[in-house]
Amino acid sequence: MSSGSFTSLSAYGWDDRLDAAFAPHREAGLVPGRVIAVDRGLADVATGDGVLRADVRSLSRPDAGPAGSDRSAMAPVTGDWAAVRPGEPPVVAELLPRRTAIVRASASGDSRGQVLAANVDTVAVVCPLTGGPDLARVERLLALAWDSGAVPVVVLTKADLVDDPERLRAEVASAAPGATVLAVSAADGTGVDAATAELAGTVVLVGPSGAGKSTLGNALLGEERLATGAVRAVDGKGRHTTVRRELLPLPGGGVLIDTPGLRGIGLFDAGRGVERTFADVEELAARCRFADCAHDTEPGCAVQEAIGAGDLPRRRLDSYRKLLRENDWIAARTDARLRAERAGRWKAITRAQRQAYRLKGRKER
């Protein structure tokens, strides 16, 4: 790869570490690229020679690293680093292991995870201030973000449409320990500079429809690149103006991934993310008299004492329990599916062996 092409691809996050890791693929005649968007077996891939429309249907995946074994069999997603075989058409032959991956429970309701974006550095959890912040939604999205391995930043949009944005920001901050919380208005520019400074590297915007993700994205990009739509007055919901995940270079460095609005945000094997999101509850739980305290009626429960003293909202404990139950449920379903798949593979092997023995017996006769 020439120095000129390295400079071109560096706008998408290519660096010396990735260049060294790519060496074996380069020796095999492949070229590096980053997946910008994926659509029905084809992907737009940024390379040193421009954006290619590459076939991904015959992809051979390496271990997906922190994304886990269940996710490693999934198709490439926006943000993946790829090894592309040039030709007509170009083909994505391999994907580099993912550093981070944002994964939710599959929208189809099965026990598999759905990767939303890969190799993300910062997750912007975007929620509107209008109508009052939805703390339960913020906590759910934060669990998703923390579990990905990226750094979450809560961006509260439409600050110009509420009377006291700072009070609301402080309310959300109390439900987001360890995360930066910003109040922003893309309409009048409030907080946009602060958001630009906090959102570094590969940035993905996640949140519900109508939260103002695309409007925020345009403010970060410095131009109207992303389609935006109005929010319905009757219920405060917006249309999915973003219809696919797409990666765009930011003018000050780094890249932006805008995502369609998330209606369902099911957790998938996100125990670590839940722990980080509820670090305050976890810290209190460590002080309980009993290690297996259920934080209910047990004596010496530090969590219940904090609730009684007004230091911890009961709503927060209820939300913590709800997300833990949901995560345990999907984990149990995933384990059951993996056991069933393993049993199915052994049955197939046994059938093949029996058939081979029968054929061998016929030949011997």
UniProtKB/TrEMBL annotation:
Its main location: cytoplasm. Its EC number is 3.6.1.-. SUPFAM superfamilies: P-loop containing nucleoside triphosphate hydrolases. Zn(2+) binds at C288, C293, H295, C301. Residues 110-265 form the CP-type G domain. GTP binds at T157, K158, A159, D160, G207, P208, S209, G210, A211, G212, K213, S214, T215. InterPro entries: G_CP_dom (IPR030378), P-loop_NTPase (IPR027417), Ribosome_biogen_GTPase_RsgA (IPR004881), RsgA_GTPase_dom (IPR010914). Binds 1 zinc ion per subunit. It is found in: Cytoplasm. Residues 118-263 form the EngC GTPase domain. Its cofactor is Zn(2+). It is an enzyme of class 3 (hydrolase). Keywords: Cytoplasm, GTP-binding, Hydrolase, Metal-binding, Nucleotide-binding, Ribosome biogenesis, RNA-binding, rRNA-binding, Zinc. Monomer. Associates with 30S ribosomal subunit, binds 16S rRNA. HAMAP family: GTPase_RsgA (MF_01820). Belongs to the TRAFAC class YlqF/YawG GTPase family. RsgA subfamily. NCBIfam families: ribosome small subunit-dependent GTPase A. This is Small ribosomal subunit biogenesis GTPase RsgA. It comes from Actinomadura gamaensis.
